[in-house]
Amino acid sequence: MEEKYRELLAGYVDGELTDPEKLDFERELSHSAELRAELHEFMQLKEVTNAMRYADIPDAVWESYWESLYRKTERGLGWILFSVGAILVIGFGLYHAFYELFTDPDAPLWLQIGLPMATLGAGILLVSYIRERLFARKRERYTEVEK
Amino acid sequence: MTSEKEFESMNSDSALVMSIGTGDKTAFRKLVERHKKTAYGMALGLVGNRDDAFDISQEAFLRVYRSARSFDQSQPFLPWFYTIIANLCRTWLRRRTARDHRTVDLDEASYLLVSADDPEEALVRKEQAARLRAALMQLSFADREIIVLQHFRNLSYDEIARTLGIPRGTVMSRLYYARKRLARLMGTN
Question: What pTM value is reported for the model?
Answer without folding.
Answer: 0.73
